[in-house]
Amino acid sequence: MEILQSILQPNVLVPWLLAMLFGIFAGATPGLTATMATALLIPVTYYMEPVAGLAMIIGATFTAIFAGDIPATYLRIPGTPASSAAVLDGFELNRQGKGGYALTLDLWCSAIGGIIGVTILMTIAPSLANFALLFSSSEYFWLGLFGLSMSAVVSKGNTFRGIVAAAFGLLVSTVGMDIAMGYQRFTFGNLDLLDGVGFIPAMIGLFGLSEVLKLASDKEILAQPSLIQTAKISMLASLPVIWRHKLLIFRSAIIGTITGALPGAGADIAAWMSYGAAKKSSKEPDKFGTGADEGVIAPTSANNAGLAGAWIPALVFGIPGDAVTAIVVGAMLMYGLRPGPMIFSESAEIVDSIFVIALITQFLLLIVGYLGIRGFGRLLQLPRNIVMVIVVFFSTIGAFALNNSVFDVYVVIAFGLIGFYMEKKDIPLPPLILGLILGPIIERNLRVGLIRTGGSFLPFFTRPVSAVLAVLLFVTMFAGPAIRLIRGYMRSRGRSNSS
Amino acid sequence: MSDRELKSNTQRNGENEERKYGLSFPLILIGLSIFVLIVSADFPAFEQRGQQLPGPRFFPTILALFLLGAGLVEGFQFLRQKDQLTRHLRDSIQTAKNQMLHSWGAKTVTLILSLLVLFMPLIEAIGFIAGSLIVSIVIMARLRVPILHNLIVSSLLIAIIWLVFGQTFNVPLPEGLVEALF
Q1: How far is residue B117 CA from its own chain's centroid?
Q2: Interface probe, candidates B17, B39, B112, B132, chain A, greatest A C-beta count within 10 A
Q3: Of A167, A222, A420, the CB nearest to B67
Q4: Do A82 and A284 touch, CB atoms closer than 8 A?
Q5: Least CB–CB distance from A174: residue in B59, B109, B154
C-alpha cells in the first residue's frame, strides 16, 4: 500500500503518462524503435527520483512495443521489430475494413500478455532465470533452428519457397564481421557493411516500401482512403473474442515470457514463436495470414510478455535479455542500483516498485493505446496516394535516423525491391525476416558449439535440454507431413478395398 | 463464357503460371549461390592446434549449397512444365510482359525507385528541406494528388519531419539554403 501511495504521486504519475504518450509516438513511427525511445528517455530521467525515472522508462517501453503494431496493422509497416509478426493477420483484417477491431484486440492482448508476463516476473523470476542459465551454445542453436522452423509454419502458401526465403535471410545475416575471426565477409571493402545488413531498414523496406510500390502500380486504388474503417472503434467489441481465446492468450504469454527471458531472444522472437505455435495447434491453420483473430492474438500477447520476460535475467543476474533491458540495466546502475541476486534484499523497495509500476503500466496502456489507435486512424483517413508519400518519407528518414547512415536508406530501397519481386513470385516475406533475425544466433552458437567440442556434433544431441529441443524441432517439422502421408495412404487403401 | 472473358481468363492463368514456374527465380538462386561459393572460397580456414574447425566460410557455404539445390529444383520444375506451358502461354505471357513494360504502374514504380535512389545525393547537395520538397511534389504529382493539396501536404510533411527528426531528435539532416534561414 505504501508503495502504491508513493507511485501514485503527481511527480511520478505525470512524467510516467507523458513517457507513455512518447512511447506511442516512438513505437508508431517507423525508424523510431522501443530501444531508441528508452535511450532517448535516459538523459531526461537522469535528475529524477529513481521511481519516477524507472516509471518513465517502463511505461515508454511497454507502450512502444504495442504502438509498433499500429502502423503494422494499418500500413503493413512494423513500427518496431517486435511487431513484425503482428503484420500478417492485422494488416489482412485492416484490408477487410477491420483495422480498428484488430488493434483493440491487439491492445487487450498486449495488456493481458503484459500482466501475465509481469506476474511471472514477480513470482518465479529466480527459478526461470536459473533455467535460462542452463542454456549453452548447443541449446541456443536448437532454439534458433526451432524458431526458424516457424518460417515453414508461418509461410502462407508455398512452404518450400518459404524455406528458401528463410535460407536467403540467413545468408544475408552472414554479411559483415565474422564472429570468431573478425574476418570481413561479403563487405567488398564497404565500411557500412561491417556491422552487417541492418535488420530494421531491411524490415521497413521489405514490408513498407514494397507495399507502397505494389499500391503505386495500381492507379484505381490510389484515390481511395488508406483506412477503410467500416465499424466504429470500440474496446468492448473485442472482449467476447478475448474470452473465447483466453487459453491462447495465456499460452502465448507464457511462450513470450520464457522466450523473452532467454538472453538474446527478445520480444520479436517471442512474437514469432507464439504465432508459429498458435498456427501449428490451430484446427484451421489455413486461416492464418488471411485475417484470423488468433493470428493477431498470439504474437501481440507474446511481445509484451516477452518484454516482461526480458526483465527476469536483467534483474536477477544483471544479464539483459534484449537491447531495451540492456539500456534499463544501464539506467539502474545510473541510479546506484546493482541488478543481480542481491538487489532483492539490498533494494527490495525499489524492486517492488518496479513490479507494481510494470503492472499498473498494463492498465494505463489500455487508455493511452486507445488514444494512439484513434489518433493514428484519423491521420489515415487521408487519400491513399497522400499516405503513401508520407510512408515513403517516414521510412527513408526513419531508416537514416537509426544510425545517421545514408547506407541504411539504400538498404530500405534494396529490400523494398526484393519484397516487391518476392510478392510477385508468391514467395512469403516473413521467413526472410525470421532468417535475418535468427541468423546470427544460429551461426554463432553452431560454430561456438563446434569449436568447443573440437568439431563434434554429438553434444548437440546428448545434452538433455538440447535433446528435448531437437526432438521438438523434428516433431514440429515432420509430424504434420507424416500424419498427412499416413492418412492419405489409409484413405487410398480404404478406397481400393471398397471398389 | 464469351470470347473476351475466355481470353482474359487465359491471360490471367498465364500470368499466374508464369509467376509460379518463371525462370527468373531459379536463375537468381543459382546465380546467387555460385557467387557466394566463389567469394567464400577465399575466406580463410580456421585451424586450432592443427585441427580444422568451422571458419568464416562454413555457414555461407552450407546456405549457398542449399540455395543451389533449391534453384535446381525450381528450374527443373519449370523445365518439366515448359512443354505443356509454352504452347498455351507464349502469347499471353508476351502480352502481359508488354503491358508490364509500358503500363502506368510500372512507370510509377520505376519513378519512385529512381527518386529514392537520387534522394540522399539530392538532399546532401541542396539541403533536406528543398530536396525533400522537390521529391515529395514530384511523387505526389505522379500519384495524381491535386496540385494545391500536393503543395500543402508536401510542405507540412517536410516541416513535421524536419521538426521531429532534425530538431527534436537531433538527427543530422543535411543542411542547405532553406535551413540556413532558421
Answers
A1: 12
A2: B112
A3: A167
A4: no
A5: B59
Phi-psi map region of A222: left, alpha, beta (phi>0 left; psi -120 to 50 alpha)? alpha
Residue A325, Cβ neighbours under 10 Å: how many?
Answer: 27
Q: Which residues of B touch A29 (CB under 8 A)?
A: 164
The secondary structure of A439-486 as a DSSP string is HHHHHHHHHHHHHHTTT--THHHHSHHHHHHHHHHHHHHHHHHHHHHH
In terms of pTM, does the model score above 0.80?
Answer: no
ipTM value for the complex: 0.83
Beta-ladder partners of B47: B52
Q: For residue B64, which residues of chain A lie inside 8 Å, CB to CB?
A: 171
Termini Cα distance of chain A: 76
Side chain identity at residue B66, one-letter code: F
Per-residue pLDDT tens, chain A, 499 aa: give them: 777 888 888 888 999 999 999 888 888 876 666 776 777 777 777 778 888 888 998 999 889 888 888 888 888 878 777 788 888 888 888 888 888 889 999 999 999 999 999 998 888 766 666 676 677 888 888 877 877 776 666 666 677 888 899 999 999 999 998 877 888 999 998 888 988 898 778 888 887 788 888 888 777 766 666 555 555 777 888 889 999 999 999 999 999 998 887 766 677 788 888 888 888 888 888 888 888 899 999 999 998 898 888 888 777 777 666 667 777 877 887 788 887 767 777 788 888 888 899 999 999 999 999 998 888 877 777 777 888 888 888 888 888 887 888 899 999 999 999 999 998 888 888 788 878 877 888 898 898 888 888 888 888 888 888 888 888 888 877 776 677 778 777 877 777 776 6
In 3D, which of A112, A88, A414 has the Cα closest to residue A235?
A112
- Partners of A167 on chain B (C-beta within 8 Å) are 63, 66-67, 70
CA distance readout (Å), A484 to A47, A158, A290, A490, A491:
62, 17, 23, 10, 10
C-alpha dihedral (A97, A102, A103, A107), degrees to nearest 10: 160
DSSP assignment of A79-94, as one string? SSGGGTTTHHHHHHHH
Residue among A123, A126, A19, A33 nearest A82 (CA)? A33
Contacts of B149 in chain A (CB under 8 A): 386
For residues A189-228, one letter each, b for 16 or more C-beta atoms within 10 angstroms of the residue's C-beta and e for the rest, the string is: eeebbeebbbbbbbbbbbbbbbbbbbbbbeeeebeeebbe
Decide the pairing of beta strands B46-48 and A176-177: unpaired
Q: Which of A145, A178, A184, A209 to mutate to test the interface with B (most CBs of B within 10 A)?
A: A178
Tell me the nearest-neighbour CA distance from A409 into chain B, angstroms: 8
- The verdict on a CB contact (< 8 Å) between A392 and B153 is no
* CA distance to partner chain B, nearest, from residue A189 (Å): 13
